């Protein structure tokens, strides 16, 4: 078993606001991240794929194919976007780092080359904050219902 | 003459859109940065101050005072904000990196400790794009008039 | 199960010297790190917390609370300190990266939000040296007895 | 159980080309990495060792010994080299990141201090591409036979 | 006057060897960089352009045009190449960082948007070694004659 | 004219305390940096040398010689040291970043290869604080007299 990691970047804006909390509760919980007009980040996403090394190629999976998959499924849909408004697969999702990485997981899982599986996704919101997910314990519920 | 540099960070959202250009011209010029609902960045600002080293303290300027000045004048007013909407001193300013750094310059210039002068301000929008300003050639005109 | 990571920094001085070794043994073992008057580092600490994502908030744990906990329990007590002399919870502890991270673990473990557990602590002494701990195999014995 | 990580760097050139594929297949699979005259990278290798912390020293393993081992076994043999031509232990190995890290593993595994074991090796080819290996599932077959 | 910086990356292999020095002199001067089969780097190039900020756009120069120019003139011609063999404009040039940055300067100088001028080019061969050039003192002679 | 930069690192401890100020004045001025038992940093020093590129070698100055000079004159004397106690050339010098970089300048200035001159020295105390010096305006007075 070998693991490969591909890193991609995108920049986006978002606002943290829960539909099931009051205005004051949102302010207390999210602080400056609840600013009504939003703010933004340069996000860094690290995607780790596990598989066997093919002796004929020396590769777990063609890194170019992995890059293309990540761009098609994720980067092209979130880069230079407002995550609360512009992204179909994030409708109704509070765009915390946790919910983003769980949503990205669903878009890539099952689409890798044969014999490969998604091992981990790491999403950095800044140099100081990150969330990572390994697909453990069933799908994360990313939608909040009012 | 000695130079000291203090680095601060903030995250914000913005949209590049010029009031004197048509919708199509804006799309062509700014590309994805013209997205109507905006996007965002983790900005890094480096502020360089020039002055003599005081023999009694070994310092050009108290770095804590410089940090406090930058937070009061800049970071507290732009961090976790929408630069097109939330920031008074950016009203009517297209928030390109060039215009931002020129605007920040005005907020700090002349407020340093006696004997010190602002030498350079560098603003990184991402790892790949940066603008810097040295106060050369008079004040930069940052406002676009319709 | 989701994992969140918070990164904090502090700078401190230390000297590596074991009370159960002779002066020569200490010099041979620790080399320049045994310098009697000490040296120092900019440390980077990454703290990883595991838990379920709360659907109402989209968060594993309020990152602000995690940051406050880390500052209160660790950063405020070690930042700009001499780790051999100034820090009560490090009395009698050889301040290697391994012993530091095991000591920090004890200060945070059990103090997280309900439903969360400490998954890993990573302490970088420099860009080249790091130790991490996952709470495996019982508490690490960090005190050397003469 | 505690984990320590040592990071080393080397720069080298390589060409990706499989002896069991046709010229066209190689071009399609490896793209620009198949350039006949090669290209190169600044590689970063992170080696993670697991073990108990010795109470007398506060260390899992003498980091100096680990560094010396890595330099002797790996860095001195690949730094400023052409990985396809100059390195004996890579003869017949397609120098992908996966094959390199598996080859490095064999050179270090079993040579650590008593009580320590190799936990993970991470090899960064660039800021965007990395492979890591944990010794799972038997030895990786790194040689392609024509 | 405002300055903008665009950063691009490429990876390439090279060998340092002067045609006017003996084999031994080359070995002594360049050390490991004289390895006959070459080695390689992940290069980082920072290009700084000076100009006035246009009030209608808030920009010194369209960053997309600058990026396209750098890719067309430099990156596409050196990325994943052997700098001693594959690159027409480097024929007969010892590919030191100094000679590379002077050669790149010639490819971009005079091709910027009206009103802009090339201010500085910085080329990092690794985290530890860099050369920069400001076009001072006439063109650098990059060709060694036997 | 071409510029080359060499980056070196060292770690050291220090305490900021001025002999011409009272205890309270020192506490107010230097804050946590006045801690009696000191603290420390991983310092990064960037040394920039200006000169002509020699056509026969493609180099401004042999980087290996520059590295050796920096190690001999600076790194070997300050690495893993207490800057207030262990370093002869810093006796009586308040070890601020400004005073350190001015002191380092004196140790290297005039010792470069023929035709080269020291252009700039940049010393990072942390990612956020830096001082640089260009030899302007005569020698900086680094000694405080009681």
Summarize the structure.
6 copies of one chain form a homohexamer. With 146 residues, chain A is α+β, with helices and mostly antiparallel strands.
Overview of this structure, please?
The structure is a homohexamer of 146-residue chains. Chain A has one domain (2-133): 6-pyruvoyl tetrahydropterin synthase/QueD (Tetrahydropterin Synthase, Chain A, 2-Layer Sandwich), CATH 3.30.479.10. In chain A, 25% of the residues lie in helices and 28% in strands. Chain A has helices at residues 23-30, 63-78, 97-108; strands at residues 2-14, 39-51, 81-82, 117-124, 129-133. The first copy, chain A, has a five-stranded mixed β-sheet. In chain A, a hairpin with a 4-residue loop joins strand 4 (117-124) and strand 5. The first copy, chain A, starts with a strand and ends in a 13-residue tail after the last strand. The model of chain A has no long low-confidence stretch (mean pLDDT 95). The A-C interface holds A 16, 18, 20-21, 29, 31, 93-99, 101-102, 127-134, 136-137, 140-145 and C 1-8, 52-53, 55-60, 62-64.
Task: Indicate the topology.
The structure is a homohexamer of 146-residue chains.
Chain A: E1 2-14, H1 23-30, E2 39-51, H2 63-78, E3 81-82, H3 97-108, E4 117-124, E5 129-133
Parallel strand pairs in A: 1-3
Antiparallel strand pairs in A: 1-2, 2-4, 4-5
């Amino acid at each position: 078993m070998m693991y490969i990691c591909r890193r991609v970047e995108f920049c986006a804006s978002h606002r943290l606001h829960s539909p099931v909390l009051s205005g004051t509760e949102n302010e207390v919980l999210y602080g400056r991240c609840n600013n009504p007009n939003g703010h933004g980040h340069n996000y860094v996403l690290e995607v780790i794929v596990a598989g066997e090394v093919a002796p004929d190629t020396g590769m777990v999976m063609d890194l170019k194919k992995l890059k293309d998959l990540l761009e098609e499924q994720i980067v092209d849909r979130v880069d230079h976007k407002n995550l609360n408004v512009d992204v179909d697969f994030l409708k109704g999702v509070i765009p915390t780092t946790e919910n983003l990485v769980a949503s990205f997981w669903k878009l890539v899982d099952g689409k890798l080359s044969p014999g490969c599986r998604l091992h981990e996704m790491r999403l950095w919101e800044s140099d100081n904050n990150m969330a990572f997910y390994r697909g453990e314990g069933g799908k994360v519920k990313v939608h909040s219902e009012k």
